[in-house]
Structures are given as structure tokens and as C-alpha cells.
Design brief:
Strands 1, 2, 3, 6 and 7 form a five-stranded antiparallel sheet that branches. This protein has a two-stranded antiparallel ribbon with strand order 4-5. It is built from four helices and eleven strands, in the order E-H-E-E-E-E-E-H-E-E-E-H-E-E-H. By secondary structure, it is an alpha+beta fold. The chain is about 30% helix and about 30% strand.
Length: about 180
């Protein structure tokens, strides 16, 4: 007696394992104990699930940047960049970064306003997204020395997808500000 067996289609695993990648996260604060806030935020990122390493740059002092340009009368910022080794999807990581901001009392009343903590996902490997919910790389990263210089400190060979080598971007921005 012969049986006609139908072979089921291959079912993908319910648990897809994502390869580890390097996310570039910019950290900034201009209210409260700025240095402590940035340091504690980096420690909090390191405790996220599927994060295996966080490498934090030197903390730097910068002038507040508003929609219409630098504002030397506003409280100054402390900025840093962290290279985060993770298997979290970019969208999930961004959501967790927003939760850490909320844990630190972040309020979103005014665009580019003062803040207790600002965490921006600048880049995630070579991923590119123009989805309004998650833009990768960050649309203004190539214009910001307070992001690029700390990133360059951590990775001399870094590249911002679509813009080129970080070292070249830094050199160009410095030349423009001196000229």
C-alpha cells in the first residue's frame, strides 16, 4: 500500500537570532548633574538585554544648540558617544533608549529644548532607514562635531553611511568653523 505524503513547507524558527552589531548612541544632558546622568545612562544601556558591551567616549562640554543656532546663554551640555555592541533590533534599541530618557525625567515640551537626558541612535552598522519613526543614520549627525569628535575618539576608522569617513567629516566641519 503506498501512501501519499505531503511534505510541509519549511517553517522558520520562532526565535530568529540577530547578529551582533555596533550601534552608535549620542548622549547629552544640560540639566541637573550632567556628568553623572551621562555616566549612569551609559551604565543603564550596558544592562539592557542583548547588549554585550558599551564603550563610552570622553565627556565633553558644549554650547546648547537651538533651532536657530548656538545659544551661549542656555545651560551648557555635556555630550558623549557610546559604541553599543548588541543584538537588539534598531527599533527595539531606540524604544529602550527613550525609556531610559523617561527614567531620567526627560520631558518633550520643546524641540531642541533643555533636557535632563537626550539619547539619539546615530547609526546602527550599515543600516539605512528613512522611516519617520527611526531614521538611520541620524539625519543631522554629519553636521555635529559634538557627535562626530567623540565617535572618532572611539573608532578612528568609523564611517557614517552615506556621508563618508568620520575623520573627513570632522576635518571639513573644523575647516568651515575656522574659515
Amino acid at each position: 500500500m503506498s501512501r501519499n505524503l505531503t511534505i510541509p513547507p519549511e517553517v522558520p524558527s520562532a526565535r530568529i537570532v540577530r547578529e551582533e552589531g555596533i550601534a552608535v548612541v549620542a548622549l547629552g544632558a544640560n540639566l541637573g548633574d550632567r556628568h553623572e546622568t551621562i555616566t549612569k545612562a551609559a551604565e543603564r544601556i550596558a544592562r539592557l538585554p542583548l547588549v554585550t558591551d558599551v564603550n563610552l567616549s570622553t565627556l565633553i562640554e558644549t554650547v546648547a544648540l537651538r533651532v536657530d543656532g548656538p545659544d551661549p546663554d542656555a545651560p551648557g551640555y555635556v555630550n558623549a558617544v557610546a559604541l553599543v555592541t548588541t543584538r537588539l533590533a534598531p527599533e527595539i534599541l531606540l524604544g529602550m533608549l527613550h525609556a531610559i530618557e523617561d527614567e531620567n525625567g526627560r520631558v518633550r515640551h520643546e524641540r531642541w529644548g533643555d533636557r535632563t537626558l537626550d539619547l539619539d541612535l546615530i547609526a546602527y552598522g550599515d543600516e539605512v532607514s528613512d522611516d519617520p519613526r527611526i531614521q538611520l543614520p541620524h539625519p543631522r549627525a554629519a553636521e555635529r562635531l559634538f557627535v562626530l569628535e567623540p565617535w572618532l575618539e572611539l573608532d578612528a576608522d568609523a564611517v557614517l553611511v552615506g556621508h563618508g569617513r568620520i575623520a573627513d567629516l570632522v576635518a571639513g566641519l573644523r575647516a568651515r568653523s575656522e574659515g
